[in-house]
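WARN retry 2 of 3 for item q-0093 after timeout on previous attempt; input resubmitted unchanged.
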Amino acid sequence: MGQCPFSFDSLIFATSLIHLILNATFFIQAGLDLPKKAIENTVELLRNDATIPFIARYRKDQTGNLDEVQIEKIHDLYKQHLELEKRKQAIIKAIDAQGALSGDLRDQISRSTSLSDLEDLYLPFKKKRKTKADAAREAGLEPLATMILEQREKDIKQISKKFLNAKIESIDDALQGAKYIIAERVNEDQKVRSALRNLYRSRAVITSKVLKAEADKAEAQKFKQYFEWEESLKNIPSHRFLAIYRASKEGYLRLKIEVEQEEAVSRILRSFQKGKNKLLKDAVEDAYNRLLKPSFYNEFLGEAKNKADADAIQVFASNLEQLLLSPPLGEKRIMGIDPGFKSGCKVVCLDENGSLLYNETIYPHPPQREGSLAGKKLRSLVNAYQTEAIAIGNGTASRETEHFIKSIKFDRDVKVYVVNEAGASVYSASRVAREEFPDYDITVRGAVSIGRRLSDPLAELVKIDPKSIGVGQYQHEVDQTKLKEKLDFVVMSCVNRIGINLNTASKELLSYVSGIGPALAENITEYRKTTGPFKNRKELLKVPRLGAKAYEQAAGFLRVKDSTNPLDDSAVHPERYDLVKKIAGDFDLEVKELIGNTDILEKVKPNNYIQVDLGLSTLRDILKELVKPGVDPRQRISFFEFDPSVRTIEDVNAGMSLPGIVNNITNFGCFVDIGIKESGLVHISKLAKGFVSDVNAVVKLNQQVTVKVLDVNLESKRIQLSLID
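OK item q-0093 returned
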């Protein structure tokens, strides 16, 4: 994400490029309250393959200081606009091929701003299987249907005798055929569909009912609360819709989306009926039940699913962002421990760069109970490898291992941290891990991942498919393409927000840098292997296939320590090096003397350096960066301890106050790790006093909290918690 996947050349659209950009701008403005010029410039940058992080960081003057969220929304609407334009051209071509494209219809199609309106216009011309209405037309009943609709004839039954023939043998057959034709006309009427769409948007109800044959199955019980459910479609929360949707897909519930039939039929009749007419009413009821109702069920099921997907994906994205931006311990010598009982605890010793120095397995827990031997080994390893911190995975035997480690009297000060190991097993069995550690088994790789997560969560987590990290809700029910696109964007956003070391970053980390991607990341790491560390940013241009465009997009987000140019270890883009040199020269300083020189930088007047392509926003960013270049925006890691008396769910009782860490956030609340296998749920109603509409406004992922235990269900292994004192 960040580059638009569509090309204007692929659009068969006979207008100028400028006209297309203007159309896109108007379309986007209808959905976003942003200045026209900012949208125009952003669309132009996206069209020229600029990434969202690059635009947000280095093109603020063109966009009016839009942030990544706003630019991403422009990107998404721009993509929607191009999809809409492609669909318009396909429809125009299809109708024209039938010889049915009038000037008025072409204009209606061109003016459409939604896919639903567009498809309504196309509906009468869509190729479909032979219908009951088609058979009635072939039997010559079209004029009879028109007479019934016009409601001028008083004795329509008498008139219908004129339409009897070999195919139509009775008056009832004639009237029924005419009603089929009327039903199809009603179904294809734009005003009818628009009125019904408004009715569904405001009053549609979603209902679910258990299928009797499935009610007693154990798998169905997790959906028990939805066995008899009814709720307004427009108000249903995404997590509830996705639960019902999953249950219906798995065959446990029957799902319906409906409006009151009497109201729907009444609204349709207003467009046609001049007085009471049973034939017309019968035709309208048939149109509604046989054609319109199924059509709007599919349409609104799709809309509700898209909305629920968007909400769920946003929750996942927000959680992932917070996890990726977790505080790093930094370049420390770390011991990583993947705890276990029977299989033992896998121990690895890592250097400051996360390189594996040594691995060992200890057995301090049952059934072996080799605590004394394990303690001696760990003391020896801590001394031998000058370990500064120990990272323990939070899986099986975590609390027992933590208790054991803290009972050891080390000869040096060693901090002990419990690390979220979600996805570590996925990494350990991955191609990336096999390439990195071809001579070690998955247990060693998993322990290395745990240790590295303490040092730098972002650098390690980018090696894992974001969907495997497990911070979201109903991730398997949502659109997988949209989920991947969004999560990839979040990873790219976080990587570029922090900036990475060009000489130490893995190819996985490099692949998320603006303008790089997997192929160039591979080339960069190969170049490092053959020629040694990069001496400066400019040397990037020597990497095979890395041209001027990729360099422009990537350079500002890559850091080179001890470079021949001191600005290479900052977020100042190379395109502004001459400007910094001029500012330094104006104070008779070298660039390296200007960096960090607060007294001088405070005297710089940005207005003196404004240029045609350089405004105040960019200038202020540059000056801010020169004060503290390359600062990591992530917070410092803080020490945390679980309650030592709580190690299993049996130790948890109602009324207890326990320290915990928020480890997942959903729309209905958050889950808190209290140091045992089972996380407890803080329902949204128990997050704070008063009404809470946004869980993220109250808590953040990895936030340290104190929770009160409300209820413990040992049978279902569920714990209810509260953040309200």
